Amino acid sequence: MRRTSLAAVAAAATLWTAPALADVDANAVLTTYADIAEATYADSLLRAEQMHNAVEALVAMPDERHLAEAREAWRQARVPYQQSEAYRFGNPLVDDWEGRVNAWPLDEGLLDYVEVVSYGEESDENPYYTANVVANAQLRIGGVEIDASTIDMALLQDLHEIDGIEANVSTGYHAIEFMLWGQDLYGTGPGAGDRPATDFDPANCTGGNCDRRAAYLLAASELLIDDLKEMVAQWGADGAARAAVMEGAPEQGLSMMLTGLGSLSYGELAGERMKLGLMLHDPEEEHDCFSDNTHWSHFYNQQGMVNVYSGHYTRVDGSVISGPSLSDLVAEQDPAANDAMQASLNATNAAMLEMVKTAEAGKAYDQMLGEGNDAGNMLIDNVVNALTAQTRAIETVVASLDLGSIEIEGSDSLDDPDAVFQ
User: Taking all residues of the chain, what is their mean pLDDT, rounded to a whole number?
Assistant: First the structure.
């Protein structure tokens, strides 16, 4: 499973456009949208299953080669999933489910050992901050007894966001990421997490509790597969997510599409995932903070937005799902608005690619956001500004389709920067 070359990504990173369609049917646009959702989640499931196979191989033979292969399988699993996030905010069913698979940031001391000098030994906000389920078969916190003698999917589900604390992330991609990489102790300097393969080797155990750590990794990857199967079904022919888009008035479905694009573009990606970390110069605000894969996760969020607008998705096997698109519909109603939207998507892709090229050349995203790294800060800020302009283009599209107003998620980092430091 080889990573796609940067040159190939760059070649594909402009908005795909089909020949203009006459008399575009809004329901056909919504069908394309749902078909791409189903395919994207199906690809995410396939990659998660491949990752689980790599995790099983690592647990069976815990050496550096198998650890490297499991890590690469995790990176590949992120490619289709991050594209699916364009479906989050406009679809309540997806947004309610998303926290089980992609919640971040997480207090990793809940899961396993941590280096306490940088992490600390307690948190006023989270009594489970250093619970360390891998090391403790029985947990007693705040008078609550938790039987963790068997690490399985049910235990992980019980621990996830326990006590309503969002940082108690025990499931999904980022819990798996932490188990594979361990803490990134390098701050805004070079280096990612570097957990040794012997952390999974009961015969030559480092870190203690290697059998339980392996059990945790296996359970987390199995649970991710189950969760993704659920979402594939939700977008299938009889799925509730597809029905929510298709069964109402077409204007409702189009508003859902554009709410998802606008909120991911602005409040989530430009704001919470990028501008906030840049303002604080804080690597703890980096999305894929253990693996230094953040540049690709951001890039594929943007690609997902391109997929939705253009009605065109290239699957992991190279096949293509395409059909009547938002772009076709807008071009019919307001060609200038469509041209502006395409130009904004392409401008954001270009800014993203500059960030990706820098990271792939050896300057990771957490280094870019470090205080005093003016060139790196500018690369991130360029993407934030492009995403913000892209959001304004999305709002113009909403107006051109006469959809009224939509509610786009905001972020203090963009809307009230002083509040970030209060």
Answer: 94
Q: Can you tell me the distance from the alpha carbon of 16 to that of 240, in angstroms, rounded to the nearest whole number?
A: 29
Per-residue pLDDT reduced to its tens digit, 121-172: 999 999 999 999 999 999 988 778 899 999 999 999 999 999 999 999 999 9
Q: How far apart (Å, rounded) are the C-alpha atoms in residues 4 and 10?
A: 10
Among 353, 343, 391, 399, which Cα is nearest to 9's?
Answer: 353
The arithmetic mean of pLDDT across residues 83-106, rounded, is 96
Distances from the Cα of 36 to the Cαs of 9, 86, 307, 308, 389, in angstroms? Answer: 19, 11, 8, 8, 25
Where does 281-411 have alpha helices with state H? 294-310, 326-333, 335-360, 365-368, 374-400
SS3 83: helix
Widest pairwise Cα distance in the chain: 67
What CA–CA distance (Å, rounded) separates 260 from 91?
7
CA distances (Å), 41 to each of 202, 233, 272, 312, in order?
35, 9, 24, 15
Contact 325, 21 (CB under 8 A): no
CA angle 318, 84, 412 (to 5 degrees): 145
Residue 86: pLDDT band (50, 70, 90) is: very high
Q: How far, in Å, CA of 194 to CA of 291, rounded? A: 9
Tell me the C-alpha distance between 418 and 283, whole Å.
Answer: 20
Scanning 163-209, the segments in alpha helix (DSSP H) are 173-181
Model-wide pTM > 0.90: yes
Provide the 10 A C-beta neighbour count for residue 215. 18
Tell me the C-alpha distance between 115 and 89, whole Å: 36
- 309-342 pLDDT, tens digit per residue, is 999 999 999 999 999 999 999 999 999 999 999 9
Q: Give Cβ neighbours of residue 42 (< 8 Å, ≥ 6 apart).
A: 232
Q: What is the tens place of the pLDDT at every residue in 45-84?
A: 999 999 999 999 999 999 999 999 999 999 999 999 999 9
Q: What count of other Cβ atoms lies within 10 Å of the Cβ of residue 217?
A: 26
Cβ distance 379 to 354 under 8 Å? yes
Cis peptide before 105 (omega within 30 of 0): yes
CA angle at residue 377 from 263 to 68, to 5 degrees?
A: 80
